[in-house]
Amino acid sequence: MILAIGADHAGVELKEKIKAYLTEKNYEVKDFGTHDTSSVDYPDIAKKVCTSVVNKEADLAILICGTGIGMSICANKINGIRCCACSDTYSARLTRMHNDANTLAIGARVIGEELAKDIVDAFLGAEFEGGKHQRRVDMINALEIR
Ligand code: RB5
């Protein structure tokens, strides 16, 4: 599985930790920055990361900013992206199982490193259930302005 990851200045430290964690687990991780704590605009990072998912250069994506909210708002404006900002493992698992989310957003100023790792594990370890949920995902897709 190929993962895309990106963060703004508020999320870069956690990004580096999550990236190392995932690399250790043998995931291929494509890092779209940022690479230091200089201030950057999270929409630019979200666009790069999500474009890699839409173009099928990555299977799933992880976005990190201060709250996870700005990144998730940006991600969900991109056709083909279903992103959930998660601060708990249940939501992270269920957003894969029911919403077929392909992008996870995390708030580095909201949760700590170990919970973030658990949330990432929950997200990556779950699978879309399909069935009635597929119909609803199709309805989400129909909401996109093409
Ligand atoms: C940056 O200060 C902060 O606004 C950003 O990381 C994020 O929390 C936005 O939603």
Can you walk through the features of this model?
The protein has 146 residues and is an alpha/beta fold. The chain is 45% helix and 16% strand. It has 6 helices and 5 strands, in the order E-H-E-H-E-H-E-H-E-H-H. It has a 5-stranded parallel β-sheet with strand order 2-1-3-5-4, with helices on both faces. Strand 1, helix 1 (12-24) and strand 2 (28-31) form a beta-alpha-beta unit. The protein is globular and about 40 Å long. The model has no long low-confidence stretch (mean pLDDT 98). D-ribose is lined by residues 8, 10, 42, 65-67, 69-70.
Structural class: alpha/beta
Shape: globular
Number of helices: 6
Characterize the largest beta sheet: strand count, sense, and whether it forms a barrel: 5 strands, parallel
Relevant terms:
single chain, 5 strands, five-stranded parallel beta sheet, 45% helix, alpha/beta, 146 residues, binds D-ribose
In a few lines, what is going on in this structure?
The chain has 146 residues and is of the alpha/beta class. It has helices at residues 12-24, 42-54, 69-75, 89-97, 113-125, 132-142, and strands spanning 2-7, 28-31, 60-65, 83-85, 103-107. A five-stranded parallel β-sheet has the order 2-1-3-5-4, with helices on both faces.
